[in-house]
Amino acid sequence: MVEVKEINVEEISRRHAVEIKLIDRATIRVEDWVRMKCQFGCGGYGARLTCPPYSPTPDQTRRIIKDYKNALLIHSRNSRKIKEAVPEIERELFLKGFYKAWGMGAGPCRYCHECDIEAGCRFPRKARPAMEACGIDVFATVRLNGFPIEVLTSRTQEQNHYGLILFE
Length: 168
Ligand code: SF4
What we know:
By secondary structure, this protein is of the alpha+beta class. 30% of the residues lie in helices and 13% in strands. The protein has a four-stranded antiparallel sheet with strand order 1-2-4-3, covered by helices on one side.
């Protein structure tokens, strides 16, 4: 069993071409209002198995976070990079012996053109709920950890996307 201090964050970051930081789980902010932003204001509500109402509620997320000692915050300018890197790094941690590793990504799942809610997920190894779909205040959480994020008013502005992997 490998120890957390033996995890080479720089090496994982390089290999996946993302920025990664080992963070204190106490800095992960979960708020009830985040769910309301999904339910009232997002056209994707109920359209994907990785989104509310199927994703963990804020209360579940608060409890889940308490089940873990460690968290990796993952940053990229590209949301697709986060979607790819999160399940891959989660699996790497699992294979090292961190059998509880579980990750959240960024934005709605895009692996299928349409999500078949009744049939179940077609790509369960890759599809993960977004941090915000689990009730995490992404803005507060990443700022507390020194990462950039701003409300954008144009698609031409620089984007910052985040994922989170819980493990111990
Ligand atoms: S991989 Fe496909 S089926 Fe699974 S959540 Fe994403 S869109 Fe839905």
